[in-house]
Every structure is written in structure tokens, then in C-alpha cells.
Amino acid sequence: MKKIGFPLIFILIVVLVIIGKFIFSESESANAGANTKTSNLKSPVKVEGIVLQPITLSEDLYLLGSLKAQEEVLITSEINGRIIQLNIPDGGNVKKGDILVQLNNQELSAQLEKAKAQTQLLKQKEERLKSLVKVQGISEEEYQSAQAALSVALSEEQLIQAQLAKLTIRAPFDGKLGLRSMSNGAYVSAGSPIATLQQIIPLKVDFSVPEKYQQMVKPGAKVKFTVEGIKDTLVAKVMATENEINSTTRSLGVRALCFPPTGITLLPGAFAKIILELLQKSDALLVPTQAIIPILKGQKVFITENGVAAERKVITGVRTDEKIEILEGIQIGDTIITAGYMSLKPGTPVQVTLKGFK
């Protein structure tokens, strides 16, 4: 019995030792796993973010336009003649009614004097016959014939006066002259250009807008524009629009007027970059475009709550090159994660570095 009991006791001891080592090993593994998880929870992901604050949002539409003179005319002669007086200083200013060009009028002036003398004689004859017809000294037909002759003479006199008026070219409005193409003593033909006259204050600003924006350019509305070589942004007021939308371009023609500020000279023909303000919001919630994450049924952003990441589905509005408006889903004061969110999941600890955003 003694020989049999000892081996059994020895075997029992060995089995207990093996079982103890196994249990101890499992305990060590569990503790190691727990320590690893705890270590992971204590290592937050480094991200960048912004604190959401209301920002002024402007949405502008940029269009192409051109400047045109308020009034513009090409100075020409209606009839042939030789210039005897030329009052066109290159680039000079003139007033309405100023004589710009005087053509030779000697011949027509002589014809006018002759016509006036003829008219005077016929008028005296008509008055003499008028007194005779009252006493039946002449027939009614003779008096009517004298009246007709007087009317013809008066018409001829008016015709010569009209021809004389064409020999004098006057400024039709206040304005600035261009460069003249004729000299004193030159012979001009009817229709030959002599110079240009423009009224450049105010200036017209002509442009077109797509038909969907036609309500933005009603008469009285203000538009901004810039011109090459002038750093200031200028303002014009819409004067009128076309009566119909162009069926080819689907756009509406618009004309605005600009009174340039003192010290700024604008010239007709200049290219203008029109800035049409479509939207102005002082309390818009904007985030960088890279903060928006597309998902299957919309868009989302990551925010931080109590040091961990959280998802928020959002509805977006106006978009620019660098910003996008958030209409729903987040609120003022939320911290929006803008970079480093690729490996984030809801509940992931994060360490946020705040960045400026305007």
C-alpha cells in the first residue's frame, strides 16, 4: 500500500503544479490585454479643428461689361464745302451750342440777301393789292396770285437759311472732343468725319446677366465694378434693362450709370468687371470645404464632445472655393474637426489643435 500511495501523491502534485502555471499564464495574458486596451484609450488621435462662429457671407456673381459714353456723336458735315473756321482743339471741352466748324458761306449769304430783297418787294406788292381789293380796284384772283408769290419767296428764303445753317456745325451737347482729322482750309465732303464728341460724365456701364438673376437688376439697384488700372471698386446704379431676354444667350441686357469719384477718370470703351451681390448674411455658419465628408445619403462632419469624436449629419448651403455654409446639423460653439479625421470613429479620443478661420 505504501508503494502504491506515494506515486499517486507525486502525480497529483505534478498535475496541480501544471494547472497552477496554466491559470497564472491566463491571468497574465488577460492583464496584458487589459493593459493594452487601457493604453490605447489613453492615446488620443491628434487632429485640427475650428470653433464654429457666425461669419459674414457674401455671394457674388462676376460678369463682363464695358463702359460707354453717355452721349457720343461723330462730327461730320451735311454738305460739301471748304472749312474757313475750325474750333476743335484736340481733347478739348466744349459747351452745347459752341461753333466747332464753319464752312464757306459767302455764296449762300449772297443768295439769302437776294431772296430777302425779293421777299420785301413781294410783301409791299401784296399790301398794295390788299388795299385795292377792298375797294374792288382789282380782282380777287390778282390778289391771291400776289399772296402765292409772296409765300413762294418766303419759302425760298427759309430754304437758303436752312442751307446756311448746315454750313455752321455746332456742339449738340456739353462734352469732350477727340482728335480731329481735318485742318482749317480743307475741303470736306458730306459725311466725312471731322472729329468725335463724347459726354463722359456720367458713363454708361453695359453688361448682361443670366435670365435667372433678372430680379437682381431692377432700375435703381446698385452694382459694383472694377476697371483695369484703377484699384478702387466703383459703384453704378441700374438705369434700365432690355425689354426682352436674348433668345440666343438667355441673358438680359442691363445699363447702369456711374458718376466717377473726384480724381478718377474713366474712359469709354474700357473693360469692366461687374460684381453683382446675390447674397449678404451676417450670421452664416461656415466651415472649410475639407471638413465636409460625403456619405451615402448626404454629408457629415466630425465634432468633439468631452474629448472624443462624434459624427453629425449636416445640410449645406452656399459654397465658395474655400468655405461651405452649414444650414443644419451643428451649432455655434461646436468644435469642428477639419483635418486628421480619416481614422476617426465615433467615441475615439482626440487631441484638437485649434486653427484660425475667417
Uncertain parts: 32-40
Number of strands: 19
Largest sheet features = 6 strands, antiparallel, barrel
Helix/sheet category: alpha+beta
Mean pLDDT: 87
What is the terminal separation in angstroms? 94 Å
Radius of gyration, in Å, reads 47 Å
Write out the strand line-up for the largest beta sheet, numbering strands in chain order. Answer: 2-9-12-11-10-13
State the helix count: 3
Summarize the helix and strand pattern as letters: HEEEEEHHEEEEEEEEEEEEEE
Give an overview in words:
This protein has 358 residues and is of the alpha+beta class. Helix content is 27%, strand content 42%. The protein contains three helices and 19 strands. The chain has a six-stranded antiparallel β-barrel with strand order 2-9-12-11-10-13. Strands 6-5-3-8 form a four-stranded antiparallel sheet. A hairpin with a 3-residue loop joins strand 16 and strand 17. Helix 2 runs antiparallel to helix 3. The longest helix is centred in the N-terminal third of the chain and has 40 residues. The radius of gyration is 47 Å and the shape is rod-shaped. About 3% of the residues have low confidence.
Give me the secondary-structure topology.
Layout: H1 2-41, E1 45-51, E2 54-76, E3 81-86, E4 93-94, E5 99-103, H2 106-134, H3 140-166, E6 168-170, E7 175-177, E8 187-188, E9 193-210, E10 222-227, E11 230-241, E12 251-258, E13 271-288, E14 293-295, E15 298-305, E16 308-319, E17 323-328, E18 335-339, E19 350-354
Parallel strand pairs: 1-19
Antiparallel strand pairs: 1-18, 2-9, 2-13, 3-5, 3-8, 4-7, 5-6, 7-9, 9-12, 10-11, 10-13, 11-12, 13-17, 14-15, 15-16, 16-17
